[in-house]
Amino acid sequence: MNLHRMLEERARAGKPVRVGLIGAGKFGTMFLAQARRTPGLHVMAVADLAPARADAALARAGWSAEERGAPSFAAALERGGTHVCDDAYALIAADGLDVAIDATGQPAAGIAHARACFAAGRHVVMVNVEADALAGPLLAREAAEAGVVYSLAYGDQPALIAEMVDWARASGLDVIAAGKGTRYLPGFHHVTPDDVWTHYGLTPAEAEAGGMNPQMFNSFLDGTKSAIEMAAVANATGLTPAPDGLGFPPCATDELAEVLRPREDGGTLHHKGQVEVIASERRDGSAIDAHLRWGVYAVFEAGTHYVAACFREYGLQTDSTGRYAAMYKPYHLIGLELGISVASIALRGEPTGAPTGFRADAVACTKAHLQAGTRLDGEGGYTVYGRLMPAAASLAGGHLPIGLAHGVELKRAVEPDTPLTWDDVTAAEGAAADAVDARRAMEAAFAPDEPARAARAGA
After folding, report:
1. d(CA 284, CA 304)
2. Coil, helix or strand for 148?
3. 251 and 292 in contact (C-beta within 8 Å)?
4. CATH code that applies to domain 360-457
5. For the chain, give me the number of helices (H) and strands (E)?
6. Contact 111, 133 (CB under 8 A)
7. DSSP characters for 43-88?
8. In this predicted model, what pLDDT tens digit does every residue of 245-254 receive, in sequence order?
9. Which helix (H) or strand (E) holds 328?
């Protein structure tokens, strides 16, 4: 609350929050559509490897040629408007910039951009949840050491889940489970970009006409994005995954408290305080009418009989015992809500969710029988999908994070549904090698126990 008032004050004072966007994809374009309507925000620059794509995104979001035509960073700062370029590092270094948004979706790029921001004294909104799942705890620590804020992106589900968890805890409620909904059937783990559109009810031609990237959309369907996002939630909230990862139980909104309670109470949870993703259809493929495919939820427990009575008196949907209840948000608005993060960081110095520890990991698992020499193609591709795993188990098994399973080759043949290890693949090169170094440093600094931390430090 009060962010709009604070933004209006900045607008009246002629001191808007200066923002730079890196990556002009769907998320970034949605942010641009609302940023031009938000008082006290000035999108000073947009950087994309294809500047013409960034210019087209601005136009699509309603920006006039004059608004998006600043010839330089200095001109944008002095006279207004937005400068379009292909150099993210020049954007980060530009005089006057307050907040940089990484919306690239590339883990190695996100880590590099964040560290450049810390060196330049810029706050960071990490839309790139792939980078956060890979090394977020380390990035958050480095940001604090640099005196800036590192934040998850409001509008994306991890930040909305973290907000809901914080609301429950600040109200004195014990959080039993939190997460999101998605489409899920067990066979989806093996879907590739070649057959992804049949599951979305689209033809390849329709998807192409809509500018939809099959590999990106497949990462949502094959479970990878769920693993990545729940790793981010666990690392930001202290909730943890079950030992065997996500169960994807089918669940309607009026069943949340019944399904997402501990097994000993008749539910599906391995333990209290768990991250979980619920399916929007039954295992036979039939749709759940009151599903939560686009939303987020938190299940919490009454600490006393009095609170349980209050749940009943005020109409909360509870489980059969009356002890467990749930809140949910049926939708998330992606980039349309991203300005909340920008305003919170710039005006309050507060992130909209940030990692505080290494509790969960998204590791690479094989989609099929793969031969030695196979080059892995990362999230949503033909070769691997992401699986959620407790961080301690990932470290103990030496497992390869999904964010690093791109462009490296297998040293041996591997069976389907096998969690890969670092020893299974060749060494990363270039920018990916820098991401490996960051990941190793994060593991050494945040290993869940001292023996694992010592082992990581010596790796």
Report:
1. 39
2. coil
3. yes
4. 3.90.1210.10
5. 18, 14
6. no
7. EEEEE-SSHHHHHHHHHHTT--TTTT--SSHHHHHHH-S-EEES-H
8. 999 999 999 9
9. strand 324-329
Which residues, including other chains, have CB under 8 Å from residue 13's CB and lie 6 or more apart?
none
> Which pairing describes strands 360-366 and 384-390: parallel, antiparallel, or unpaired?
antiparallel
Q: What is the pTM of this model?
A: 0.95
CB 324 within 8 A of CB 257: yes
User: In angstroms, rounded to a whole number, what is the distance separating the alpha carbons of residues 311 and 70?
Assistant: 55
How many Cα atoms sit within 13 Å of 193 on the Cβ side?
A: 16
Q: What does DSSP assign to residue 347?
A: I
Give the C-alpha separation, 115 to 428, whole Å: 19
CB atoms under 10 Å from CB of 207, counted, come to 16
Beta bridge partner(s), residue 201 = none
Q: How far apart are CA 272 and CA 261, in angstroms?
A: 7
Q: Which one, of 120, 109, 29, lies nearest residue 68 by Cα?
A: 29
Beta strands 41-47; 83-85: pairing state: parallel
**Local structure of residue 302 (DSSP, 8 states):** -
Task: Give pLDDT tens digits for 11-66.
Answer: 999 999 999 999 999 999 999 999 999 999 999 999 999 999 999 999 999 999 99
**Which 3 state secondary structure label does DSSP give 274?**
strand
CA dist 395 and 459 (Å) reads 11
Question: Looking at domain 3-155+338-348, which of 3.30.460.10, 3.30.70.20, 3.30.9.10, 3.40.50.720 is its CATH number?
Answer: 3.40.50.720
Contact (Cβ atoms closer than 8 angstroms) between residue 388 and residue 226: yes
Residues of the chain with CATH 3.40.50.720: 3-155+338-348
> CA angle at residue 88 from 73 to 431, to 5 degrees?
160
- 168 phi and psi angles, rounded to 5 deg: -65, -45
